[in-house]
Amino acid sequence: MAKEHILVVDDEADIRKLVEYNLAKEGYKIACAATGEDALKKARAAVPDLVILDLMLPGVDGLEVCRLLKSDAKTQRIPIVMLTAKGEESDIVAGLELGAADYVTKPFSPRVLVARVRAVLRRGAAKPVDESAAITVGGLAIHPGRHEVLVKGKAVDLTATEFRILHFLARRPGWVFTRYQIVEAARGEDAAVTDRSVDVHIVSLRRKLGPSGSKIETVRGVGYRFKDE
User: Fold this and answer.
1) What's the sign of the alpha-carbon dihedral 34, 37, 38, 42?
2) Does residue 126 contact residue 172 with C-beta atoms inside 8 Å?
3) Which residues pair with 143 in a beta bridge?
4) Is 47 strand, coil or helix?
5) Phi/psi at 80 (nearest 5 deg)?
C-alpha cells in the first residue's frame, strides 16, 4: 500500500533535500516547492496528505500560505507541520491559530521530524472526535455527560472552566494549543477567561489532578498540550 503524499516547502535546497531523503526513506511520496506561490499551486493541483511548511519564505511567506490553504475548501483539511527558526514564538503561535497541526524548530533532527509527521498523519486518520465520549487515560477518566473527572476512581472537584479546559486538551492528545485557542474553548457564561488566567487554571488543574496533572504539558512560549500516550 502506497504511503501518503507530502509536500515539502522550503526555499533552502539543502533542507528540502534533507527532508525529502528522510521521508522518502520511510516510503512517503514527496513533492517539493521553493516558494509560497509554487506551494499553493502544487497543493491545489494535487492535494497532499500533509504539508511541511517553512515560515521564512520569500514573497508569499509561510504564514500567508497557511492562511490561504486553510481558507480554501479544497485544501483546508490538509495538516500542516511548520518549520521555524528558534525564537520565532510569535510566528508559531500565529501558525497554530491559523490551523497548523504542529511545528518543528530549526535546526532539527530528521528522526524527530519523521516522528512528528507520523504522529500528525495518525491523528488525521483517526475517527472524528466525539465530544460526548468518555476519555480514559491511565488512571484519569473524564466523563463529559456527567461533567465528572475521576483519578484512580476518586472524584475530583473541578470548576466548570477547569473542566472545559481539561476536556478540550484531553480529547485531542498531542495537539499543541495556544492560550487564545484555550480561551475560546473554555469561554462560558459562568466565567470570563483570559489568556493570562489560562495559566492560573492550568496550575490549579495540575494540583487537583495530582500525578495525572503531569499529562498537561507546557509548550514554552506557545501554550499547552495533553500528553499523547
Assistant:
1) positive
2) no
3) 148
4) coil
5) -120, 125
Q: Which of 95, 92, 89 is nearest to 69 (CA)?
A: 95
CA distance 56 to 44: 21
The cell 473527572 sits on which residue? 149
Characterise 133 by phi-psi region: left (phi > 0), alpha (psi -120 to 50), beta (else): beta
Q: Enumerate the domain spans of the chain.
A: 5-125, 135-226
The domain defined by 135-226 carries CATH number 1.10.10.10: yes
User: Residues 60, 36: contact at Cβ < 8 Å?
Assistant: yes
Q: What is the DSSP letter of 57?
A: -
The grid coordinates of residue 2 equal 502506497
CA atoms within 13 A on the CB side of 87: 0
Please give the sequence-ordered ranges of beta strands (E in DSSP) within 144-193, or none if there are none.
Answer: 148-151, 154-155, 177-178
Q: What is the pLDDT of residues 107-159, one digit of tens each?
A: 899 999 999 999 899 887 655 556 678 889 888 999 998 899 999 999 999 99
pTM of the model: 0.78
Cell of 206: 495540575
Q: What gap in Å lies between CA 138 and CA 152, rounded to an integer?
A: 8
Nearest to 7 by CA among 37, 39, 35, 36: 39
Give the CATH fold of the 5-125 domain. Answer: Rossmann fold (3.40.50)
Give dist(CA 14, CA 200) in Å, integer: 43
